[in-house]
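tool_log.txt
---
The assistant was asked to compare two proteins side by side. It first ran the structure predictor on the initial sequence, then on the second. Raw inputs and outputs are pasted verbatim so the downstream comparison step can read them without reformatting.
(1)
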Amino acid sequence: MKKTARLLRPVPSALSVLLVACATAPVPAPQKPKVEPPAQPIDAPPPIVSVSSPEVGDDLWGRMRGSFAMQGCEADPAVLAWAHRYTRDPQQFEQQMDRVLPQLDYVQRAAAAHGVPGEFSLLPWVESDFRPVSSRHSHAAGMWQIVPRTAKAMGLKVDREYDGRLDTADATDAVMKMLSRYNDQFGDWRLADYAYNSGEFALRRLIAKHGQPPRQPVVPRLPVQRHTREHLTKLLALSCVIREPERFGVNLPRLSNERELTAMPLDNPASLAQIARQAGIAPDALHELNPGHHRITASLRRDERVLLPKRHLEQFSRAMRQQIDGNAGTQLVSLDNPPRLPVLDSEAQPPRQQTEENTPAIASAKRPHHRLRTHVVRHGESLWQIAHYYAIGVTELQRWNHLKNTRILPGQMLRVANAN
């Protein structure tokens, strides 16, 4: 009996423990999750933010907003931080933007012609503040900051007299072609920017090792260098300001038609100084727009282009027509007689024997401009170049010629004036 009592002594204490356990936890408590679930799934796109900035339109800013392909201000906290950093002095930002506006407009039109999103129009701001940075030896140069080895691969000439990396027209076309190729290769405009900054082959090796990055986060978490990740972040930050300027207290400047830049092809060799005199522009101002030529007295080849503001381009055209009408001859091209953009008059009669009155140079100067109806596409020409040569919009060219995109072929005939 005593032995039995000793055996039963632990029972009350065990029962008390059991009763306490039952009283405190009548049902099993759910396990606490290791990580608190985020308010929004990681792979889900960020919420749509209402933007009260001006709607998409035909002006520069409207065209840019309409062609943006990547996410905006809420894409990443770092994007918004850089946007505030760029605009901490709104007035200074506006002044800087106004200074580069003609070049930005030119780059945007080139980007649109190559099917490149509007964000990349701002890439020269990230690279150089749109300044044609000169360089020696193997360093990067131009507003696109291109190294000599890359320039050679892009087909840009670099020698003692000329540096294609500083040529706004040629370098911009080459960069847009390269960005378009990067996107075709990687299938992601974010990676196109990574490739531009870090190199195509380096990025290709990273993707082969780590795989294609997901759409989120917006700034891919590939193990690239910090400045490469920051390069894309800055690009998105600047586009954020363009999307929502009022959010940062910024008034985006407007580009007048007179300041709009056009790349004009030359018929014969001429120096920038000669062109400046005919166009009524200060030689230094013309050289600033065409810094690829190291000397203002250097001769431009007949297959080169010169960048001119629209108001001076019109004056230059008038000067050339006056020279032709006076039978004084000229070394430069007239807008009505483009060497690389041959024009066919749809109302013209069959060819007849050449005389002084019906030679192409004289006839094109004498007949009114509105009679120029069709244009024969030559090898290497783009729809954008043709549109700018005739001072019309790409959209108009597409509508008049029933084009669904900007692709054209050598030998194709295009209407370059409204039939009405």
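(2)
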Amino acid sequence: MQRSYYVKAIWDPEAAVWTSQTDIPSLVIEADDLAEFEALMEALGPEMLAANAGIHNQTIPIEFSAASRRELLVA
């Protein structure tokens, strides 16, 4: 059975960037916006799977999601 992977973009309000949480070995992404994040994921994800998981010439399912958390002052 083919394994699937995930990449989650998480907003870091202090740094004002999207950072990655993933199970793809050695994949670390930091981007100013989601479009840049997705482009980096599509470029670097296969590269990291090839280099660190020995996966070559295969189509691998990757679940992508984005999450943002905000704190609001309730008066």
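---
observation on (2): The chain has a mean pLDDT of 93. The chain has one helix and four strands.
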